[in-house]
Amino acid sequence: xxxxxxxxxxxxxxxxxxxxxxxxxxxxxxxxxxxxxxxxxxxxxxxxxxxxxxxxxxxxxxxxxxxxxxxxxxxxxxxxxxxxxxxxxxxxxxxxxxxxxxxxxxxxxxxxxxxxxxxxxxxxxxxxxxxxxxxxxxxxxxxxxxxxxxxxxxxxxx
Length: 158
Ligand code: SF4
Ligand code: SF4
Fold this sequence. Notes:
Layout: H1 9-15, H2 26-30, H3 41-50, H4 69-73, H5 80-93, H6 99-111, H7 119-127, H8 137-147
Helix pairs in contact: 1-3, 3-5, 6-8
The structure holds iron/sulfur cluster (SF4) (2 copies).
One iron/sulfur cluster binds near residues 21, 26 and 80.
């Protein structure tokens, strides 16, 4: 299988053994996000199987807390949280992830960090007796080289 391209939904469905799902809804009954209008894991499983799952930035897949509880209770060992990770990857690789994720991605690409290095960062580090945070261009170059081997590596920075 080619690795340097986004996975299709049917490939994700096959790799996740979704045909085992019995529709028992145990995953959803324990899901803390589902209780509050977030992701509904059994629905994600069903829609992925049907090929109708939403990969847009407004999709419920972005409302998962990644707590993994659903995967622990599934009686047929489907792993809904990992499924959601694969779907998020497929969404992000097509440029559809929510803005906050795309901004973090741009930051990682430019600095190697997922958080901004602000004056507050410097102040807090100073208070903890830590040295200033400097960019490590060698580390960033290595990261970009690794990044170039993934489906997100050749689409430029926004
Ligand atoms: S990993 Fe996501 S889908 Fe699963 S129980 Fe936690 S919030 Fe719900
Ligand atoms: S717990 Fe497993 S079998 Fe039951 S609905 Fe969820 S994914 Fe399907």
